[in-house]
Sequence to fold (324 residues):
Amino acid sequence: MTAREVQETRQVRRLGEAALAWVSAHRDGFALGEDALAERGQVNFTWKPLGELAQVCVCVRRHTDPADPLHVTASDLLAFAWQQTGRGALFAELQRLEPFATYPLEVYAAFASAGLRHTGYESATATVARTRGWQVTEQEPNRRMGVLNSERRSGVPEHGKMPEALQRTWLAGLPEPWTFEAAAGYTLTHVVFHLTDWGLTPEAVPPPVGAYLRHWLPPWLDTCLEGEQWDLSCELLAVASSLPDPPEPAMVQDAWARLAVAQDDSGAVPEVGAGRGGRSTAHEFIDCYHSTLMTAFAAVLTLDRLCEAAVDGAAARGGQGAAR
Fold:
């Protein structure tokens, strides 16, 4: 790496480290309360944050060495999250209470992909997944992709084909770029996450979709950064590092430099609006937990691709020297 590449890579790592440190310090905010199994419980404030915590920790572990402090912290947080589920027992209870709900499987899949499994839950869910009721449940196309990926990760027979589900999405239609807005942005990011198993298999992105995103993601990301939409900006940065042929490293590094102004001294990143120096009070957990998780997620994916690009660049420079 050149001196500049090293400096820019260190900045991305510092942002990721600070974000994960904030998450670790605020782990109690992810804890399941007594309402986790309530009939009218607020899933978006109980299971959703816990599932997002588990998924990000799985990704951090995948892309870091076991001796890396990031890996150690992520492993600790993943163990905490698994304990919150009663080591999987609460999933079995959820399945009994809501047999046709898909969100328990979507949360469970993150744990299963890390080898944390509950055979009783998997057996019961596999039985329900064989029913016509499960297979014809009406869902948004990107949500259907999420369920298919969750089935695959959990060992449940997939009830459909990912390419078919992809074709029904906004992204697969290669829409006019000026039709991009926040809702479309969050949809397309999750389409890519489900296609690539959260950045693990960039080659799963079809060439037309990959080329379209490589061309249009930079101006979309620029728009989101300018509008202080930090959460969506982080998701787009994660997408950039999940493509077979990612955008130019200089564009990605510039985006991270702009994102740095949003992270406060605690490591928190707000979903939208003023960040560092723009508030006189601490961010509320609900207003920044997701964007802070996404900062850590995008950082580890970006670091992988920046290092890869640096190695390729060094090889190319070496080859040119040999040719001369």
The chain has two domains: 1-29+169-316, 31-158. The radius of gyration is 20 Å. The chain has 14 helices and no strands.
